[in-house]
Amino acid sequence: MNQQPIGIFDSGIGGLTVAHAICNALPHENIIYYGDTAHLPYGDKSAQAVTEFSIGITRFLIEQGCKLVVVACNTASAAAYPALQEKFGKQVHLLNVIDPMIAHIQQYHAQENIGIIATKGTVNSKVYPNKLASLGITKVNSLATPLLVHLIEEGFSQHPGSRLLVAEYLHQATLKDIEVLVLACTHYPIIKTIIEDYFQHRVKVLDSTLITAASVKHLLTEFDQLNNQTVSGTKQFYVSDYTAAFEQVTKVFWGASIHLEQHNIWKTASN
Ligand code: DGL
To answer: 6-96+210-270 and 99-208 share one CATH topology?
Structure first.
């Protein structure tokens, strides 16, 4: 069981930020990543569609022998996690990117004014304000910032236009007086410094990369399923549709010798 890989998925390159943090925290773990680039963006799709995609990918990752599947996408975590738990919870460990962040906010930022930026799907689900409200944390305002995903997927994160778009979103009245901003989309850590610069470091910007990696480590330790091999873990990347941006970002994180394979599970999967 311990040598089995950790499966990680997202609609595209966003989940690579989480995967990278997991690899750093647990360098001996074997990783299988699935980027559902054929269906990107998830943020504009219905919860039902995102749930169907997530079920197909999770089934694929289980077939690859994964011991744990990390839903490295807030939109899929919001829309599909309960369904995934119900369908696969007895077969495999499952982790989403929302619950570790909620626990972190409860522990460190419960008294502060919290802003959330995310996809339309995540914001419309109200998953963050609802989970926080159940813990008595109510100073929470959310804003959908869907264009940021396109900008990042198109490789524009370092383009000067990114700063304009970030400023356009972040100066909205919804985010006035926030003390903490949660990047509730796994794509956004790629432009985290632009966001921090906009606030001139007066707002604490949180992302789920390290927080999720710590949860993965905690879970595998708890179940005594950490990989005890001494060599570096293998990394296998799948996309449902090849995009140059995916390959480029993967190489930025892991170097030139990555294994990237196009594998469209929708042609074979029967949900
Ligand atoms: N990275 C994803 C998230 O965390 C979704 C981006 C998208 O496909 O819209 O929500």
So the answer is: yes
Question: Ligand 1 pocket: which of 40, 42, 157 to mutate (most atoms <8 Å of CB)?
Answer: 42
- Roughly how many angstroms between the first and final C-alpha of the chain, as a whole number? 26
pTM: 0.96
Give the architecture (CATH level 2) of 6-96+210-270: 3-Layer(aba) Sandwich (3.40)
Nearest of 69, 1, 56 to residue 216 by alpha carbon: 69
Closest CA to 43 of 129, 140, 141, 117: 117
* Residues with a known catalytic role: 73, 185
Per-residue pLDDT tens for 148-193? Answer: 999 999 888 889 999 999 999 999 999 999 999 999 999 999 999 9
Q: What are the residue ranges spanned by the domains of the chain?
A: 6-96+210-270, 99-208
Interatomic CA distance for residues 42 and 28, integer angstroms: 31
Cβ–Cβ under 8 Å, residues 217 and 180: no
DSSP H helices, the chain, are 14-25, 47-63, 74-88, 98-108, 120-125, 127-133, 147-153, 160-170, 192-198, 208-222, 244-254
Which range among 29-38, 204-213, 234-243, 254-263 shows the weakest confidence by mean pLDDT?
Answer: 254-263
Residue 271 has pLDDT above 60, yes or no: no
User: What CATH number does the domain located at 99-208 have?
Assistant: 3.40.50.1860
43 lines ligand 1 (CB under 6 A): yes
Nearest to 152 by CA among 80, 265, 246: 246
